[in-house]
Amino acid sequence: MRMIDNIVLPSAGSGRTLPPGHIHLGVAKEIPPTLRDFGIDPDPVIREAGLDPGLFEDGANVIPHGALGRLLALSVARTNCPHFGLLVGQRATIQSLGMVGRLMQHSDTIGDALRSLVSNLSIQDRGIVPSLAVAGDTALLGFSVYQPTVAGVEQISDGAIAVAVNALRALCGSEWNPTEVLLPRAAPANREPYRRHYRTPVRFNQETATIVLPVRDLDLRIAGADPLLRAMLEERIQQLKGSPGSEFADDIRRLLRTRLPSNRCSADDIADLLVMHRRTLSRRLQGSMGYRAIANETRFEIARQLLEGTHMPLVEIALALGYSEASAFTRAFRRWSGQAPSAWRSDGRQG
User: Fold this and answer.
1) What is the CB neighbour count within 10 angstroms for residue 330?
2) Residue 287 burial (CB count, 10 A)
3) What residues make up the domain containing 315?
4) 176: which strand partners?
5) Confidence at 308, pLDDT banded by 50, 70, 90
6) Mind listing the pLDDT tens digit for each residue in 178-188?
């Protein structure tokens, strides 16, 4: 280990690329103390989720994303608190994002910090896919759950947005507030916990978990940023990202999770985005399902999330997934599931 100005950089040989669908505990390390706040012993709940309570002693430990979802769903049931994920995210800090959080702290500007988050979060968390877009005078920092059918998906989104706002306040000042927050979940009976943390309007039943902020905030300078530490952190992160184990098909799924709701996503579009020929994309996907199958699988996952977790009309879901008509989306959903989307939503509500 090398210690430099209180920043610990792991030696190059100690890190490995996270496998698909896994996360370093990081933010999730705040689940046990949040349960204790309700007077609940966290260990039995953690074991019921299929995890060892001892894992939560170190935020660098790795768990499957599905296990995190099960644990959050169990925590909601034990506490009878529908915004448990929000409480977990509120407790977390920019340090909970590990090396990526450190890099954000030593970026030149807020825009650089958010681009670093989007580019590098996969070394910390392969369950959440971040994105950053600019539309006119507005910037949109979005978070999509890579496996949207896992249990507790709305809690995962709540936690991701909550800690991201904490990170932005750490960089911009504690008085900073977003313009608004969008959440892909049905509106809870009590919205006050969300208003209290975000201090801004919160809209529910949205396509993607999103922090909306003025584009001018991207140019804000970050106080105390150290260029030398930034360069060292960037080098270490690139070493980690270059380690064996990065799977191209999984990277394509992650990319589609962020782009499908608002962008053209044909194979040619994705190949252009990755600066490669369409045939190169197909060749690199050999040994896994092809691009069309991956895209349809991702559309099905997003559709199930929006049908089960929001009250969005079917026509809006169809448009979000790139269908010009609701009837085309209905036909596709029948092929994927054997059911019409309205029947799937009804069954999910009854279950």
Assistant:
1) 16
2) 9
3) 248-350
4) none
5) confident
6) 999 999 999 99
